[in-house]
Amino acid sequence: MKIAKKLMALSLAAVMAGSCLTACGDSSKADGKGGDEKTLVIGGSGPLTGGAAQYGTAVKNAAQLAVDEINEAGGVDGVKFKLVFEDDEADKGDKAVNAYNALKDKGMQVMLGTVTTGSCLAVIDKTKQDNVFQLTPSASAQDVIKNDNAFQVCFTDPNQGKASADYIAQNNIAKKIAVIYDNSDAYSSGIYNTFKSEASEKGLDIVAEQSFTSDSKTDFSAQITAAKNANAELLFLPIYYQEASLILAQAKSAGYSPKFFGCDGLDGLLDVENFDKSLAEGVMLLTPFAADAADDATQKFVKAYKEKYNNETPNQFAADAYDGVKVIAKLVEKEKIKGNMSTSEICDKLKNAITDGFSYDGLTGQGMTWGKDGAVSKDPKAVVIKDGAYSALDK
Amino acid sequence: MKKKISPMTRKSFVTYGLLVLAFIAVEILLNTGNISSMMKGLLVPICVYSILAVSLNLTVGILGELSLGQAGFMCIGAYSSAIFSNMVKETITEPMIRFPLAILVGGIFAAIFGLLIGIPVLRLRGDYLAIVTLAFGEIIKNVFAALYIGYDSAGLHISLKSQGDLKLAADGKMVINGALGISGTPNDSTFEIAAVILLITVIIAYNFVNSRTGRAVMSIRDNRIAAESVGLNITKYKLITFGLTAFLAGIAGVLYSHNFYSLQASKFDYNMSILVLVFVVLGGIGSIRGSIIAASVLTLLPELLRSVNKYRMLMYAIVLIVMMICTSNATIRGFFVRNAQKFISLFKKNKAQPEAVKEGE
């Protein structure tokens, strides 16, 4: 047994040493000095395995689509983009940092990531230390952009909470509101916190605050009963669509039919398997992207995405990632960035360029601009689900 | 040699030697710059997981009780020390003073909780103990995930509901921000410190096993009734082991939290506890050296498999299963041993095998 162990240890050690050496081969690029003049390496990080894999995959696919489009058009001033994408398993600690380090070893010069908030919080100080320009498509917490090198394509959670409360108050949708949120999740509790403070300012009455955790997200009967007993006219759901689909079904069987209002996490609700779409009728949500919107840019993107990836409908994460790559491309063009510049030099140029009167019309918003704080400013779009599809909720 | 060295002492010194050698090798690689960023980033986590595995081995291997609450103790150590470091980072700016204090704070808090939980829980045995420790870990995680703590000129504010309920003054600062956790912890963990702590942990573990207390604990594992009949205080010895495990797990938590900028409670879920248990089982229950090897290999493996991309987790699982079968199935093990002996006999002339050391189970 001892010998078997020794042998195993020996062979594993050999494998490790071997992989160490192969990794060393790349390390010339890892020092941030930049490589080939004609190639700019964009590093993406997101969950490709595990429960959140669909977000990471959507971001990876859409980013690849955008990169291919740019390269087919001859690149940006001759500079071609190369996307490297690593799996961070939506981890909140060491694995997210491992993915980031792996990207560094692959010569990443600009970072598009990470996809989830938790992983992003774990790497923001690393990108700051290395001075890498970081544009996250979908990590939405406020803390994600606290460093000056990090920017967001999506809305910040507090903004979503505030915008939701404003929207409900302005349009007189309801006065008595119940909230069901995930208090173990940064995204959900982030929205809830600002929604609550903004709601009380706007004179909205929160009659029930119900929470659940990621360990108990299948049975919501207690929360629904509490909301029902408090006579709430509107149920605010700052959560992801999987749980929302259960809440809708369980509310119906409890004989409770308030108005439902959600944020961008509800995007994807109509694609849940075995979900009765009629339950979602009348659900309102704030989302920057709707795949069946009529404008040219969206339709072109959706068509290209479907062609490339097995007829899958792109979600909001995909749209954010596509915009992210295009924003980077525009900035690269503006600053005449070449692939042989150092990562730090690129970062300094890009972060000045993005805050300096830069504006971008993308899939997720018209006239997107960025402030020094890293947050994007664009108008939230409110949609309502009608006849199994999104339609604009204008007022 | 005149004086006979006991097999146990020899075994422990071989482990120390291997650790020191590995440390020197890594240091050489680090100083010559021949190491990728990914490997560099993995050094502290490897030490952290090794410490966790060694400390859990004391409960699982030496005491013979199944504990699934390792992540909970790690969480307590990580949070308490991160709070401490964040509170004092303006007053104590020297990391060499601040960090040892943080380690003590984390370890002691985890040990206190270990003892508090151990008093009622250690009356249970087997599956029941596993269930209760699992529940304990989950409780710790959820409490920290729902906890909001902030301080301002009026003092400390604590809430379990939301950030708004804290009613902080304008100059207030958040310490724990619910599910977002703690951010801004100074990055005091270095590989050198982590390696030294790992070495100390291993020394503690070997000496514990080899001490009067350790022998008493093992006798409880082997036959509780016999141990009780010779007058051993079962509860006391169980509590000592459980407390020591918690203390070391807490220290691993401190290293972990000070290695990253942000700390979120949801990281410390039951998957983490199971992972550590897997290290212990794969490395061989009761074998301290095995725990370290298993922890290092299994932490490195998913990262080294990045090249196979989306089949990574599949490969990881397969490797895990193969390793389990190879180390537990007698026929397959025999096959490996026979072949290994043939292989070694090729080198027999210039290499004498010191096989006097018997593998402890």
Structure description:
The complex is a heterodimer of chains A (395) and B (361). Chain A is built from eleven helices and 15 strands. Chain A is an alpha/beta fold and 395 residues long. In chain A, the strands form three sheets. Chain A has a seven-stranded mixed β-sheet, with helices on both faces. A five-stranded parallel β-sheet of chain A has the order 2-1-3-4-5, sandwiched between helices. The longest helix of chain A has 29 residues, at 2-30. In chain B, 67% of the residues lie in helices and 5% in strands. Chain B starts with 6 loop residues before the first helix and ends in a 16-residue tail after the last helix. In chain B, helix 1 (7-32) runs antiparallel to helix 6 (191-209) and helix 4 runs antiparallel to helix 9. At the A-B interface, helix 1, helix 3, helix 4 and helix 6 of A face helix 2, helix 5, strand 5, helix 11 and helix 12 of B.
CATH architecture of the largest domain in chain A: 3-Layer(aba) Sandwich
Give average pLDDT of chain B, whole number: 87
CA gyration radius of chain B, whole angstroms: 22 Å
Number of helices of chain A: 11
Structural class of chain B: mainly alpha
Query: Roughly what percent helix of chain A?
Result: 40-55%
Secondary structure: helix percent of chain B: 55-70%
Strand content of chain B: 5-15%
Order of helices and strands of chain A: HEHEHEHEEHEHEHEHEEHHHEEEEE
